[in-house]
Design brief:
Elements lengths: L6 E2 L16 E6 L2 H4 L2 H11 L4 E5 L2 H6 L11 E4 L7 H11 L2 E2 L12 H10 L8 E5 L6 E2 H5 L1 E3 L3 E4 L2 E4 L2 E5 L7 E4 L8 E8 L2 E6 L11 E5 L6 E8 L4 E7 L1 H4 L13 E2 L4 H13 L4 E8 L4 E8 L7 H18 L14 H5 L21 E11 L6 E8 L2 H10 L7 E3 L2 H14 L19 H11 L4 H6 L7 H15 L10 E9 L5 E11 L4 H18 L20 H6 L3 E7 L3 H14 L8 H7 E3 L1 H4 L4 H18 L11 H23 L7 E3 L17 E3 L4 H15 E2 L4 E2 L4 H14 L7 H18 L5 H26 L17 H13 L19 H4 L22 H4 L9 E8 L1 H13 L13 H6 L7 H9 L8 E9 L10 E8 L22 E2 L7 E2 H8 L25
């Protein structure tokens, strides 16, 4: 609509005294021209002017900057004035003191908004949740520490500490100057390290990542706070008085730094619903800071919502409904304070009840969701998935028993006791090991990596150092240069340590680890002999990362309705469509990703999430830290009971294979031993063929999407992926051959069969053509592996059930909790702790009084670090105030009304997504639970638990699916177990049929590895298919009956320290 309103620009003639000449209220706009004449400002003032009660006077920028306040327009009844860059705030305050107009936004309080320390202190005083912080004060020119930090400041690889307050990475670093928007996020070495720099949007970028930096800035005073996981979005809230708030969600810059824009080039923001607590937060922010029109930033963490910045005067861009609401609220407020009769603001005819209910999108009921489909009248409530990591390099391990003083001292320094093992993974720790290896090798440069020992396996982290260091030198020359006190085994082991730890120039801490295990002690109890274990390899390949991302994209289209692209949606961004990304953008996607502690699993989770949420390509570390939570107890660790049961199963399996089992054994020892002999002979052939390869003629090709050279079709021409090198391929196969047959004991080591299977599959995919014997070796290795791997988890249903319960019992428990919570209406607390309002003016008066009472050495009246450390319960008043939330009507807000909802059937539905990334052991154990839960129970199941379960013969895995599983017994990379929970809206609320669960499974990339040829070194994945009969999913109650006996209680979390600033974890 066209906007026209009466505007007076100041000149020599002043506005007549009293009200406007025509009896109207004179509204002054005292701000910098760019802000005062912006489109949102004009739109809002147009609504105000259309009431016919106001005369609007603009204070010209030239006058604001250069004329005395006595020459500014007068009289003005109501003044809108706010700070922006270049605005003379002190002059505006002088004008207010001289003319005394009514203020929309208090001017004196705006000084607080310029200092983040004061903002947080005032938030805390009013019981508004905000992050706890550490302030480190420095001289901006010299970097010299000042204040509390000067007394006791520690900066380590993965944390900072001031006095007794310790803050671990990831953490956020903010300048205390609120006008400085250069914020940094520091990542822990366990996630790859580095720093992400956030800045004001430049084009489509709002952040960049630097993996080379890790030290905090020293050019001024900064405040540090924990990094919160928020599902990749943050919320902007805009108030117009204490009873109106508009909230929008956008993609957080911490994820990939890429700004999502719509077809018109505007940043995609979606109106969201505010919870009752968040409405009360908005009310308190507005009142405490004295800013009627105010914007602030909020994060929704797993535990609660936090205010992280207050901006003062801010308004929504491009939302006509907000302009109309804001103009109406402002006009009504100004008429009330001027004693005029209030009026009813005009609306656009939107139904009030509908407008007040802000939505969160859910799935449409009419269209099927992806290729798997769904049945009618059902609405998706939850998607839960358990997945294995993506394609990786072979895992490698070196062992060395030593009594050398240097390593004994290293163990004493890092171990918590002489009987304890030392696990060295941090960059500082690995650097000590590398320095020690270099010094013991006497004169070998750090970057040189002599011939790898027989303990070495193939891994890209060591290979470049090994090959490059050997050019121009013979093994004999290296041997002569070594100290004669090192025996051959020690020499080769130290060379491998040097090669692995010196590769790359820096430590990520995510792929390499050194363990120091005491094995012998003297009479005094001191360690006299150590077992050194170097673990490396097992890292994701570029092809694995790319495939994990592709699986995430496919998962989005198959699991969530509304993601199908057609001619009508191609022009829209993903966030503008009606599927998962729209759901996620509106904060109604309850989304969490969990991972084990292994680096390859974390990075698989990050790559999958990048595809699922359509994030920009780039480094995975920021995504991993922002969206992936590590839960090793649930997804990685095996308790003693599980380890004992699996050890027993492997012992029984070994006895069968070597021919000592009884006549009722399922496997045939004679056949298995013949297979092992054939496997050994094939290993010898592969070793000979790889050894005879002319390395100068090997074609190196890239892996994954970066592959630029296509593998030669000529079988006689060898090619090798850059993730490995021919020399280390040979070393790996020589070691596997020696480990398979224990010549000293004269027995087979069948635990090496899965390693051989993984290694030959990797080489067929990534080192095609190095040996013609790879294919025959794979066929026999697969034949044996298909028998051995399932039997490692038990040979009968009872044993498999027991091992499954012990290995993944916590995960089963968590899945049950997820399903239960998804089927229940969420309940949220309706109020914040009681409070007494502390205004910005009261805070400033107290701060100045406190400052003037201090010694002359204090330089700044801003809040001290310790005042920011207070717990919220110590800040909030214990006595309810009459102005408290229980006596305040809920604020209205403009949100996702039906015109924003698009094709969503139920705007109030929240969909829960939980992704659990783990290793093969947990996938096998979980599948054994699903396959056997209808037959047996764990031995420690409570009496009577099976009564109802036995009465119902329904099972999770139908006979047809069981037959498929027996034909594909090994679950490969990116295997998936998926649970989709639906609600039938037509079923009675108390009926078991109300909630049903689809259980889907894919064995992952288990095709023949030759299928990867010409396919970017990736094997195709098997599609997800139902484990139950197609179209007949289980009821939620039946599924709970079957798997609840296999769930174990989660151990109690250790209490966090009283000064621990890092975030708590939420169970769900």
């Amino acid at each position: 609509r066209s906007l026209s309103f009466e505007v007076f620009h100041p000149c020599a003639a002043m506005v007549p005294s009293g009200d406007g000449a025509d009896g109207k209220i004179v509204l002054g706009i005292c701000a910098m021209a760019k802000k005062a004449t912006s489109k949102p400002m004009k739109a809002i003032l147009g609504i105000v002017n259309n009431t016919g009660h106001f005369t609007i006077v603009y204070f010209e920028e030239e006058m604001l900057l250069h004329s005395p306040v006595e020459e500014w327009p007068h009289p003005v009844d109501v003044l809108i004035s706010f700070f922006s860059d270049g605005f003379p705030l002190e002059k505006a305050e002088a004008y207010v003191a001289l003319r005394k107009p009514h203020l929309i936004n208090d001017l004196t309080s705006q000084h607080i908004l310029l200092d983040r320390r004061r903002v947080y202190a005032l938030l805390a005083e009013n019981g508004i949740p905000c992050p706890k912080t550490v302030v480190i004060e420095r001289d901006a020119k010299t970097g010299e520490l000042k204040g509390k930090a000067a007394e006791n400041f520690v900066e380590a690889d993965d944390y900072i500490q001031v006095g007794g307050v310790k803050l671990e990475k990831p953490f956020v670093e903010k300048p205390v100057d609120a006008e400085d928007h250069n914020v940094c996020i520091y990542y822990p070495s366990s996630a790859g390290g580095g720093v992400k720099n956030l800045f004001r949007k430049v084009g489509d970028k709002s952040a960049d990542y630097d993996r080379t930096k890790s030290a905090v800035r020293t050019d001024g005073t900064y405040m540090y706070e924990p990094f919160f996981q928020t599902g990749g979005t943050d919320i902007k809230v805009y108030t117009v008085g204490p009873d109106y708030a508009h909230a929008e969600a956008r993609k957080s810059p911490v994820v990939d730094g890429q700004v999502n824009r719509d077809a018109n080039g505007k940043e995609v923001r979606v109106p969201v619903v505010l919870t009752p607590i968040e409405k009360e937060i908005a009310r308190r922010v507005c009142m405490a800071f004295g800013q009627m029109v105010c914007g602030f930033d909020m994060l929704r963490s797993p535990n609660q919502s936090y205010v992280i910045d207050v901006n003062g005067w801010s308004f929504v861009k491009g939302v006509q409904k907000y302009y109309e609401d804001a103009g109406a609220v402002l006009a009504a407020h100004m008429m009330r304070i001027m004693g005029r009769m209030s009026f009813a603001p005009a609306t656009r005819g939107t139904d009030a009840a509908t407008t007040a209910k802000v939505s969160a999108p859910a799935v449409p009921g009419a269209s099927p969701g992806g290729s798997l489909g769904r049945w009618e009248n059902q609405e998706l409530l939850a998607v839960l998935a358990v997945m294995r990591h993506a394609d990786r390099t072979p895992k490698n391990k070196m062992k060395l028993v030593t009594s050398r003083r240097e390593f004994l001292e290293l163990h004493e320094h890092w171990a918590s006791g002489p009987k304890k093992e030392a696990k060295l993974k941090a960059p500082k720790q690995l650097q000590e090991v590398l320095d020690l290896a270099n010094s013991m090798l006497r004169g070998t440069p750090t970057q040189a990596s002599p011939k790898l020992s027989r303990q070495a396996g193939g891994d890209s982290e060591a290979e470049q150092s090994e090959d490059d260091s050997l050019s121009g030198h013979s093994p004999t020359e290296f041997m002569v240069s070594r100290c004669i006190s090192l025996d051959e085994n020690e020499l080769e082991s130290l060379q491998l340590v040097q090669a692995v730890l010196s590769e790359g120039g820096c430590f990520s801490g995510i792929n390499r680890k050194v363990q120091l295990k005491p094995v012998k002690w003297n009479a005094e109890g001191k360690v006299k002999e150590l077992l050194i274990i170097l673990k490396y390899g097992g890292t994701l390949t570029p092809a694995g990362i790319a495939q994990a991302e592709q699986v995430g994209q496919r998962f989005r289209s198959q699991m969530y309705p509304g993601e199908i692209e057609d001619a009508s949606t191609m022009a829209l961004s993903h966030a503008e469509r009606g599927g998962l990304l729209r759901l996620h953008a509106t904060q109604r996607h309850d989304f969490k990703v969990y991972s084990s502690d292994e680096g390859r699993v974390q990075m698989s989770a990050a790559a999958f999430t990048r595809g699922l949420l359509d994030l920009e390509a780039g480094e995975l570390t920021p995504i991993c830290v922002a969206l992936v939570e590590t839960e090793p107890r649930m997804l990685d660790d095996l308790n003693h009971e599980a380890e004992d049961l699996m050890k027993e199963a492997k012992v029984a399996l070994n006895q069968r294979v070597v021919g000592t089992q009884d006549a009722t054994a399922q496997s045939h020892p004679e056949t298995m031993v013949k297979d092992l002999e054939e496997l050994y002979q094939n290993l010898k052939v592969v070793c000979e063929q790889v050894a005879n390869v002319n390395r100068n003629e090997v074609i190196l090709v890239d892996c994954g999407p970066e592959r630029k050279i296509v593998e030669p079709l000529d079988r006689g021409c060898a090619s090798c992926c850059r993730t490995t090198k021919p020399r280390l391929v040979l070393k790996r196969w020589q070691k596997l051959r020696e480990d398979l047959w224990d010549s000293k004991k004269g027995t087979w080591n069948i635990s090496k069969v899965p390693e051989i299977y993984d290694a030959v599959k990797f080489d067929i995919i990534h080192s095609q053509g190095l040996a013609a014997g790879f294919m025959p070796l794979f066929e026999v290795a697969k034949r044996i592996n298909d028998v051995i791997v399932p039997l490692e988890y038990g040979s009968d249903p009872q044993t498999r059930a027991d091992i499954g319960s012990k290995v993944c019992g916590q995960l089963v428990r968590k899945l049950i909790t997820d399903l239960q919570k998804s089927s229940q209406s969420g309940s949220e607390p309706s109020e914040l702790p009681a409070w007494s309002l502390v205004t910005a003016g009261q805070y400033l008066k107290r701060s100045v009084a406190s400052w003037m009472g201090k010694s002359s050495t204090s330089q700044d009246p801003s809040v001290e670090c310790t005042s920011l450390m207070k717990d919220q319960k110590d800040i909030a008043s214990p006595v309810p105030d009459e102005a408290g939330p229980e006596n305040t009507p809920e604020a209205d807000f403009a949100g996702l009304n039906p015109e924003h909802a698009g094709n969503f059937m139920n705007p109030d539905r929240r969909v829960r997504t939980r992704l659990y990334f783990t290793s093969e052991s947990h996938i096998q154990a979980m599948m054994n639970v699903l396959r056997n839960c209808h037959i047996v129970l764990p031995e420690d199941a409570v009496d009577g638990q099976d009564a109802s379960a036995r009465a119902d013969k329904t099972q999770i895995v139908c006979p047809e699916a069981e037959e498929r599983l027996q034909g594909e017994p090994v679950f490969d990379y990116l295997s998936q177990i998926v649970f989709r929970l639906y609600e039938d809206k037509l079923a009675p609320p108390a009926s078991e049929e109300r909630y049903r669960v689809e259980v889907l499974f894919s064995p992952g990339a288990n095709a023949h590895p030759s299928a990867s040829r010409g396919n970017q070194h990736t094997m195709p994945l098997k599609e997800l298919s139902p484990l139950h009969k197609a179209g007949t999913p289980l009821t939620l109650m039946r599924l709970q009956q079957l798997i609840t006996p296999f769930a174990v209680t989660k151990p109690e979390d250790k209490d966090a320290g009283p000064q621990d600033l890092n975030r708590d974890r939420s169970e769900c």
